[in-house]
């Protein structure tokens, strides 16, 4: 039986071990009374899709990275293997805010362990996530998305809701079907930024420092969008014919 966790404790969840250095953790958490879901991840992949019920379904596959020397000696650290075997999904809830992360009886070296997160969440939830390195894919969430990634790619496709995303080095691709966009602000300090409405690229945008681009579109709706990349590319696609955002 799966047993939900009380405040600040580790989730008691079923675990399936596929091979040495690999482990999968799973959990089902009721979303009753929850408005915001926050996720903190390390290096790897994170995928979020809608659930069919009012619950958060979580699967995290941990995969130990092989260490190497002179390109042909490969080995795995016994210490990291022990960390993986003692890893748990941690739940912390404060009011209507639920946060999920990983914990271990010994400190988990996130640089040596790949985390493959797969979550199904209620469409209504606002999603906030923070990840070090990897790929983030969010589909169908309507409560709003706030994503922070150091290095890698963020891909978001939502029916509506405010969007905020930040990548230090990498790429952001966002698609929204909202008919009520608020202010839109895209920025790439070194790289390119682009907005498309109904498949047509919006002209304009200011060059800055000769290396990047910033785009601002006015809007009075509730779905504001702020997408920032330090080095890389960012693009936003509005698919609703009623989007109506203007420079």
Provide a quick synopsis of the model:
The chain is mainly beta and 247 residues long. It folds into 2 domains: 134 residues, no CATH class; 104 residues, no CATH class.
Task: Describe it.
With 247 residues, the chain is mostly beta strands. It folds into two domains: 1-134, no CATH class; 144-247, no CATH class. It contains one helix and 17 strands. It has one helix at 78-85, and strands at residues 15-19, 22-30, 36-50, 55-64, 67-69, 73-75, 88-94, 97-103, 113-121, 126-139, 145-158, 163-176, 181-197, 200-201, 206-208, 212-217, 223-238. The strands form two sheets. It has a 15-stranded mixed beta sheet that branches. The protein has a two-stranded antiparallel ribbon with strand order 5-6. Strand 5 and strand 6 (73-75) form a beta hairpin. Residues 1-19 and 68-79 have low confidence and may be disordered.
